[in-house]
Amino acid sequence: MSQTYEVQSVALALAFALRFSVSARGEERLFYRNAAVFTISYAVFSIIGYVAEDHGFPSGSLMDLCWTVPFTLLSLLAMQPSLATYPQSRPSQLLNSSGLHGICAFGLATMSLTASGLLARHRPLFGGWVVFVAFCLLAARTIARELQLHRVHTQLEDFALRDPLTGLANRTALERALVGRDEVENRNSDRQTVVLFIDLDRFKLINDGFGHHFGDLVLKEVSNLLRLATREQDLIARQGGDEFVVLLDRIDLAGAQEVADRIGTMIRKPIQIAGKTVHLSASVGLASRGFGEGGETLLEDADCAMYNAKSLGRDRIELFTPELLIKAKSAHTLHTDLREALADGQITVHYQPIYGCESAEIKGFEALVRWRHPKRGYISPGDFIPIAEETGLIVELGQYVLRIACAQCHAWNVQFGRELAISVNVSARQFADRGFIRTVTETLEASGLRPQLLKLEITETVLLGGYGGIGEMLSELRSAGIKIALDDFGTGYSSLSYLMNFPFDILKIDRSFVSHIHHDFRRSETVRKIVELAAILGMRTIAEGVETAEELACVRDLGCDFVQGYLLSRPLAPEAVSALLSLEIKAAQSPSSKPVHSGHFTALAS
Ligand SMILES: Nc1nc2c(ncn2[C@@H]2O[C@H](COP(=O)(O)O[C@H]3[C@@H](O)[C@H](n4cnc5c(=O)[nH]c(N)nc54)O[C@@H]3COP(=O)(O)O)[C@@H](O)[C@H]2O)c(=O)[nH]1
Fold first, then answer.
1. How large is the average pLDDT for residues 555-574?
2. Which CATH class is domain 171-320?
3. Quick check: 580 pLDDT over 70?
4. What is the dihedral of CA 264, 268, 274, 277, to 10 degrees?
5. CB 465 within 8 A of CB 431
6. 545 C-alpha to ligand 1 centroid (Å)
7. CA atoms within a 13 Å half-sphere pointing along the CA-CB vector of 231
8. Do domains 171-320 and 344-589 have the same CATH topology?
9. Which of 365, 383, 425, when mutated, tests ligand 1's pocket best, judged by the most ligand atoms within 8 Å of its CB?
10. Rounded CA gap, 514 and 522, in Å?
């Protein structure tokens, strides 16, 4: 019976050696080598013992000590430096380093117990103490190691679930928490998990203006405010960038709105950071399963509501509704269709004439994009331009309009022997495109139009957009001869400072000042002052949105240089513009034509 151990050991050693020879992977080789060393040592020990001690040896003899040799060897192998790089992630791994440490401990324990067994035979009391102390040391070592492992594991897990900048939960932790709550949530209860999706408004301006380090300080401060505004049981996460998510636990709608209001108020208060005062605001989306069936996750719903808050002017709280999701899906469809429309030639450009107030002649046109959808019919630019801006498609769309408009204007100038100008709207996103200036100059060159006849119309959002070096870009365009017009002038909130800081050639006085100007003293005085200011600064003015003869008379009397509006002409297709220009030539040549000063503008019958 005792011989079967040796036979077994030899067989095992052979099996390991065989497996070792065919195995290619490092970690397997290591395992089989260790196992083989153990088996061979054990077999050698057994054979020696069997032969040397006449087919057996008494327990407690010196041979017993040799019994521990394989364990000792295995323990030493476990400590070899190559194990430091032993891969840990494979679940199929048979022996991980923790297992090998266990074997080490076991080997050492066996050795010390055998040694103390021998001692106990000769000096019983001393032997007993040695056994006890050895056992205690081993137990203490094992417990300490387990505690250390546990601590490292907890630290690693914490690290993986925390945002390193703010110390808040990160996206992974948030998703885990959301899945957990969605599973246990009772959807009929009026106290549910509510998600607040918070996005700081125009945070890019802070980063670009004061640097990323300062931006980080602001984000930390916002995290602290969120901690103050919420309860202990709520989860606050940083979703990335300037986006934060608060998971409000078991709360009703009124309570959730209260928290959202509190967050909005706290963020709105001026914050002192590194000696600077920062004014912030946030757009907040609020969603809960209780507010109707929504998208895939609560997070998407809250994100959708937050986008709605942004599109409604920022610095506000919006509740998710299923209609919003429909709107978002329709915007997505519109974006896909717009991409196809650009490729399919569904996009055209119409031109609204701009007249000189003094001469009553057409001086140029504003190029306005038009989209006739094959199924949905005419889609207003007011509907698709914001989507194109959001998705970045405006860069391609804007380039398209610029190319068509410049080429068309040049063709008219050649055909009618005129010096007509073309105004093209440019969005903030186009200015963010590094190649924008080159695109403009190359397009102009290809069209043959003189740069002085191109007017780029920008709105305050371009200046607010936070794209670095906007002033330099405008100056560069102007030094190429291109004119810059500030559109919708007067509707923003700090336009006067822009007049000082940015180079403009033209101010377009917004329709809201022109409408009913003839019987509104405040409006007429405002326009008078704008015209005076523009004259001082060497700029010219266009009154836009003129719809009645009275409005026209008024803006002319106030000294506006140019005028544009439905009274004179709606935006026209290119063929209609050609007809209008022919008509204007005929009218000028006609002996019955009255002096321009009497207000006879040439327009097509509408
Ligand atoms: N970035 C780009 N934006 C563009 C482009 N083409 C148009 N747009 C912008 O879309 C908004 C809506 O444009 P649209 O529906 O074409 O309206 C223009 C005019 O038709 C309208 N208008 C002109 N006169 C009158 C008027 O007497 N009354 C009245 N109610 N509306 C009038 O105003 C719009 C032009 O406004 P503005 O640009 O401020 O001069 C609009 O914001 C366009 O800018 C494009 O190619 N790129």
1. 97
2. alpha beta
3. yes
4. 180
5. yes
6. 9
7. 12
8. no
9. 425
10. 11
Assigned fold of 344-589? TIM Barrel (3.20.20)
Looking at the CA of residue 366, tell me the nearest atom of ligand 1.
40
Please determine, for residue 189, whether its predicted confidence score (pLDDT) is greater than 60.
Answer: yes
* Sign (positive or negative) of CA dihedral 178, 184, 185, 187: positive
- Bigger pLDDT: 179 vs 54: 179
Name the residue with higher pLDDT: 188 or 209: 209
| Distance of alpha carbon 581 from alpha carbon 567, whole angstroms | 17
Kind of pairing between the strands at 243-251 and 192-200: antiparallel
Cβ-contact 381, 388 below 8 angstroms: no
pLDDT at 173 over 50: yes
Per DSSP bridges, beta strands 377-379 and 362-373 are antiparallel
Which is higher by pLDDT, 131 or 384?
A: 384
Residue 208 to residue 327: CA distance in whole angstroms: 32
Query: Mean pLDDT throughout 549-576?
Result: 97
571 CB within 6 A, ligand 1: yes
Distances from the Cα of 111 to the Cα of 45, 58, 137, 591, angstroms: 15, 18, 14, 125
Question: Closest ligand 1 atom, CA of 547?
Answer: 27
Q: Nearest to residue 562, comparing CAs of 505, 503, 604?
A: 505
| Beta strand extents in 390-509 (DSSP E only) | 421-425, 454-458, 483-489, 506-509
What spacing in Å lies between the alpha carbon of 455 and ligand 1's midpoint? 15
What length does the chain have?
Answer: 606
Ligand 1 near 347 CB (within 6 A):
no
| Residue of 354, 385, 402, 403 best suited for mutating to test ligand 1, as the one with most atoms within 8 Å of CB | 385
Does 381 contact ligand 1 (Cβ within 6 A)? yes
Of 185, 388, 133, nearest in space to 298 by CA: 185
Would you state the structure tokens that stand for residue 332, as one six-digit string? Answer: 């997505």
User: Looking at residues 247-264, what average pLDDT do you find?
Assistant: 94
For 376, which DSSP code? T
**Which has more pLDDT, 39 or 28?**
39
Distance of alpha carbon 345 from alpha carbon 340, whole angstroms: 9
Checking if the pLDDT of 186 tops 60, the result is no
Tell me how far the alpha carbon of residue 426 lies from the centroid of ligand 1, in angstroms: 12
Give 3-state DSSP helix, strand, coil % of the chain, rounded to 5: 60, 15, 25
Instruction: Catalogue the long-range contacts made by 326-330 (C-beta closer than 8 Å, 24 or more residues apart).
Output: 328/304
Could you state, in order of their start, the residue ranges of all structural domains in the chain?
2-160, 171-320, 344-589
Confidence of residue 95 (pLDDT cuts 50, 70, 90): very low
Token pair of 577, please? 């513009």
* Number of neighbours of residue 147 by Cβ within 10 angstroms: 10
487 C-beta closer than 6 A to ligand 1: yes
The answer, yes or no, to whether residue 179 has pLDDT greater than 50, is: yes
Q: Report the separation in Å between the CA atom of 500 and the middle of ligand 1, taken as the mean of its atom positions.
A: 26
Q: Is the CB of 545 under 6 A from ligand 1?
A: yes
Query: Starting from the edge strand earliest in sequence, which strands make up the sheet with 317-319, in order?
Result: 235-240, 243-251, 192-200, 282-287, 317-319
